[in-house]
Amino acid sequence: MKPIDIQTNGNELYLDCNATTPVLPQIAEAVSHTMETVFGNPSSSHITGLKARYILDTTRQMAREVVGLARGRLIFTSGATEGIQTAVVSAIAHAMKTRPSAKYLLYGATEHKAVPQALEHWNELLGLHAELKAIPVDRDGRFDLDFIARHVSDAAMICTMAVNNETGVIQDLNALERTIRTHNASIPWMVDCVQALGKLQFSLDDTSIDYAPFSGHKLYGPKGIGFMAVREKAPFTPLLIGGGQESGQRSGTENLPGIAALNALFELLITENEILHSDQRLKEYRRQLSESLKAAFPTLVFNHSFELSVPTTLNFSVRGVASRDIMDVFDACGIRVSGGSACSSKVVGSFVLRAMGLDGWQSESAIRMSFGPATSQQDIDEACYRIRQAGDALKHSCLLIADTNNDNDAALDGVVQLKYDTHCCYLVIDKLAKELAVIDPHPALSARIENIVNCRGYKVKTVLSTDSGSEISEAAKLLRGILRLDAKTHDVFGWPGVKERNCDAVPVEAQADIDGCIKVGERRLFRLAGEQPVFVLSEPARLKSEVKTDFVFSGSAPLNSYQSLVSVNALVCPKEDPEHHLVYSLCETMGDCDPGADVNIPIGETDEFWCRDDLVVIDVRERQEHVVSDIPCSAEVVNVPVTEAIQFIHDHQELKDRDIICVCRSGNRSAVVANVLQRHGFKRTRHLMGGLALLSSPAAKAV
Minimal CB count within 10 Å: which of 323, 481, 561, 667? Predict the structure, then answer.
C-alpha cells in the first residue's frame, strides 16, 4: 500500500491524535460498503445475515491475533468506556460474593477519569463500599511498586494503564505483574490499553491481565466501536443483557459497520504496509518536532522522559506562557493540539502532571501534541514550519522574549487588563515614554508581566496593591523584588513616600482628596485619600494643572466612597470580575444604566456583513492570533484583544454610531467584548456566534 496524507484538512494540521483520529480512507470505505451492501443482522440465518456473520467472526479472529489472545473472551463494545464499566462491574460483583470485606479498590493516580469514576459509581451502587485508593507515581509517571505491594493483598480490584493519554508514558507491565501477583495471585487486574493499540506489541496470553479495553477511534477508526479482551477464567458479569448477542456476553445488535472498520484497521496492523510507520520513523518525527518546539519557545520544558514514552506524544510547558495563549496561537496557525488542562481563564492544571510531582507552572501551562502512526513526513515538515510561525507571533506579542527587540506597531499602550480566574490585574503603559505601572498583580501573572517589561524595555514606576493583607499584596511584593524596585521608598500598598510623589497636576473633581501622584508618561496616577486605596488615572496632562480622571481602580473599596471624586465618564476597573463585565461605567455602579440588546449573529446570517465596507469588524483575538490568521472581508478590521478592550472603549467613542461585529475563534471572547461595548453605549454592536471556527467549516457554509 502507498502512504497517504490524512492529517491536513485544507489549512488544518491535526496534532491531537490522543483525543481522537481522522478515519483512514480505506476504513471509511469499509464502513460505507458494509452499510450499503452487507447490512444484514449477524443473528439472521439467511444469506444476508450469514455475510454479516462472516465479517463479525473474521474480525474477532483478527482482533485475537492483534492482541495475542488465543484463549478467553473477545467482545465487541461501543468503546473503551463500556469496556472499563464491564471490567469494574465484573470485579466488584465477584468481590461481593468472595471478598465482601475487601478494603480497597486500587487505581493509578494518572488514570483516565473514566476509571476512578466508574469505580466510585459501581462501588456505591453494588454496595461494596471499599475505599478508592490512588496508586502514586514517580516523576517519570511510573507506578509506585512498593505502594502496590503494601495494599494489593487487601484490594478487590487493581486498575492500571499501558500508556498514559496525556504524557505517553509507558508502564512497565512486567514489573507490575510481578508485584501484583506476588502479593495477590487472584486479584482482578484491568489494564487500559486505549493509547497502546498500534504503538506497542501485545501478547495478552503471556500475561495475567484480566481485562484489556480498546477503542477504535484512537487509531483511525470511527467513534462508537471498540473491543475488550477478557482473560480465561477471569470474573465476568455482562453489563448489557437482553438479546443474547456476543454469546450472551454483551447484548444488543452488533455495530457491524464499526466492526468492519476494525477489520480494515486490523488488516493494517497485521500486514506489512507503508501507511502505519515503524517505531523508528515515529521517533524521528518526534525528534524533528521537539527541536522545532525548543527553537520556537526558548523556555520550553518537556514534562516526560522520551525514553519511557511512546514517540507519538509530546507534553510540554513554556515558562511564563499560559496554555491558553499557546493553544490560541497554534489554532490561528492551523495546528490543533490539546491543553494538559481545561482551556479557560480558571487554570486548574493537569492532574497527571500534579501526580508526577512536577512544578505547578508546568501543570497549569501544559500542552499535549500527539500524532499517529499514519502521520506523513509532509505533515511533520509543515508542523515544524508553523511551530516557528507561532513562536515568532508570541515573541512579537511579548509573551516570549526574543533574541532581538522585534518591536512592532502593536505595542501595548494605555490600560491593559490581565486576568487570572476572576482576578483582574492592570498595566498602565505609556508607549512613547516606555513607562509602566502595575496594579494588583496575581502570582500567576508575574512571569507574563516580567516578560512584557523586559521585551519592551519599560521603566516600571511602581507596583500597587489595593489590599495590604492578601495574596495579591504578596504578589505585588514579589514583583517589586523581581523588577528591582526600592521597597524602602514605598508603603505596604506600593505607594511612594512624600518625596517621590510630587504632583504637577491635580484631578478637577478631587483636588483636596488626593494623596500624591505618580507620573506614567503624560498620565498621572493618583491615590484618593482614605484607608482603603483607590487609584485613579488621569487623561494626558501635557502641562495642564488640572486634569480629568479617565479610569478608577477601586479594589475592594465601597462604591459610594469615590463616585463624587471622579469624572462622570470615568471607567471603573474591578479587581474581581466573575461575570466577565471587564469594566463598568459610573452609572452601572449605581444601577441605573440601560441594559444592552441581543448581540448574537447566527452563522447563517453573516453573508451581508462580510461584503459591507461600512462595517467595523473587531477581531478580539490576541495579537499573536491576529497576525497569523487574516479575516477575509470587505470591512475595516481592527484588532482589539480582550486585554485592551477597556482602553478601546475610552479612545473610540466616535464608533458608537457604527455597525460593529466582534469576532474571535470560538465566539466566547467576542460575546464578552460585544456585551461590554453594548453596555457602554456602542448600541449597534453584535458578535459572530460560533466564531471563525464554524464560519470556515463545511457545516457552517451549508447553513
Answer: 481
Residues 6+ apart with CB under 8 A from 298: 400, 401
Considering only CA atoms, which of 224, 174, 228, 169 is closest in space to residue 199?
169
Q: What is the pLDDT of residues 92-136, one digit of tens each?
A: 999 999 999 999 999 999 999 999 999 999 999 999 999 999 999
Task: Give residue 118's identity as a one-letter amino acid code.
Answer: A
For the cut 50, the answer to whether the pLDDT of residue 341 exceeds it is: no
State yes or no: pLDDT of 677 exceeds 70: yes
For residue 624 the three cell numbers come to 499573536
The answer to whether 379 and 5 are in contact (CB under 8 A) is: yes
Catalogue the active-site residues. Answer: 343
Q: Which residue has the cell 507620573?
A: 519
DSSP codes, 21-64 = -PPPHHHHHHHHHHHHH----TT--SHHHHHHHHHHHHHHHHHH
Domains contained in the chain, CATH given = 8-18+277-394 (3.90.1150.10), 25-270 (3.40.640.10), 461-590 (no CATH), 600-701 (3.40.250.10)
Q: Tell me if residue 657 falls in helix, strand or coil.
A: coil
Residue-averaged pLDDT of the chain: 87
- What cell numbers appear for 587 in the block? 452609572
Question: Is residue 621 scored above 70 in pLDDT?
Answer: yes
- pTM of the predicted protein model: 0.82
Backbone CA torsion sign across 312, 318, 323, 325: negative
C-alpha distances out from residue 280 to 276, 294, 380, 586, Å: 12, 21, 15, 64
